[in-house]
């Protein structure tokens, strides 16, 4: 048996390590070939990529405007996308730098649910378009244009500022008409189909490349400088302002924005989070349909719990043994029992736009840690205010690592963050309106923070329930989990037997994979 197998963007893993993790490494091993095939396709389309750039920027002839694609070693690979740096020379004293970003279909459940790539991209560009109107105070990269896949007829759109004068004039008149008739806001993006050689086989977005002259990723200096009080507080102030700006306009539903082919953005997509996408891609059956939004916090939380129930039932290595299986079932029983406590509309607060995947690599700062740009608008959703909290990574630990002395450390930094948030909220509102900071305080004091993290994380549920939501119950004790697990479903013992059989089958397939 080979000692390791290759994985995408991770170190090779041994069988001994893989079998002790709850990730499906059979699925993950398949990403290696899928990634190479995606790169091969992009290499074949270099000329089309150049045509796409020229199309959206409305460039002059090739001899006056030269488009250069960066060498492959400079391409930037993320969890869900590849970013291709592009440089345009001509027509300006300095080169124009852009990023062409293409989503990975094999990371976005496209094979299981065709159209998911376009759903995800429509949500993302919808946020860009909405923020351009509603949050001009938040610095984000300029979105030049984008194109959907063939699932949406390969529709292409360009920002009106890069279109001819007559197109801009028509768009201004359309926007005025929409406003007078009280239609949904018309975005700045106009339909702009290209010739066949200006199309790609994949969906894409074309963005401004934010360079070091503007700022660098917070993650570059986070570990070594996060103990410096002045820097940290400047960061907290910048994050608070971003969160408050997004929350300035209360939303009517729990959901995500979606960009439509008529240029309108509406809050009519399901709340699409990073965790939902990762789990669906890994095989979890879809529970919340694309066009389902929620006005009830209780209904949303209930559907999220059903989604995690489906995850447990469908995941082949969700449980390693009898006690582990019963523990996961018991945790779900506890969360169902607590559902009413944390979904009361008065406690959950208003519905606000939130960055559900905010992390140090998405935040650009200057040398003093002033926030200068937000560079990733994936996974933005309208959610209950109670789900808004101090980022869990403020002490450099994972959500499931904030226990014991690390919890004390986190609470100290959390209070510092909330104090600054409260100051910024008071300045922004003049002391009036619904207090978001009070909702955040209440969510922490009641344990709601841990409830919401439990149902929105990929795999932290059991630990969070055990350590934070019922620490005095000692949920990990076999006699406790054995009793509680029986309330999760009819014939709970049959589920235990089924999950153990699935784990043994997964183990056999994993050994076979290592033997190939």
Q: How are the secondary structure elements laid out?
A:
Elements: E1 5-7, E2 10-13, H1 15-18, H2 25-44, H3 46-57, E3 66-69, E4 76-77, E5 81-89, E6 96-103, H4 116-134, E7 143-147, E8 156-159, H5 165-180, E9 189-191, E10 204-208, E11 216-217, H6 222-225, H7 229-247, E12 256-259, E13 265-269, H8 274-281, H9 297-314, H10 322-342, H11 345-348, E14 351-355, E15 363-365, E16 371-374, E17 380-384, H12 404-429, H13 436-446, H14 448-456, H15 461-469, H16 478-485, H17 492-515
Antiparallel strand pairs: 1-2, 3-5, 4-5, 5-6, 6-10, 7-8, 7-10, 8-9, 11-15, 12-13, 14-17, 15-16
Helix pairs in contact: 7-12, 9-10, 10-14, 10-15, 10-16, 12-13, 14-15
Outline the structure in words:
- Residues 226-381 form the Aminoglycoside phosphotransferase domain.
- The chain has 17 helices and 17 strands.
- Strands 3, 4, 5, 6, 7, 8, 9 and 10 form an eight-stranded antiparallel sheet that branches. Strands 11-15-16 form a three-stranded antiparallel sheet, covered by helices on one side.
- The chain has helices spanning 15-18, 25-44, 46-57, 116-134, 165-180, 222-225, 229-247, 274-281, 297-314, 322-342, 345-348, 404-429, 436-446, 448-456, 461-469, 478-485, 492-515; strands spanning 5-7, 10-13, 66-69, 76-77, 81-89, 96-103, 143-147, 156-159, 189-191, 204-208, 216-217, 256-259, 265-269, 351-355, 363-365, 371-374, 380-384.
- It is of the alpha+beta class and 516 residues long.
- The protein folds into two domains: 5-208, no CATH class; 216-254 and 294-485, Aminoglycoside 3'-phosphotransferase, Chain: A, domain 2, CATH 3.90.1200.
- The chain is 45% helix and 15% strand.
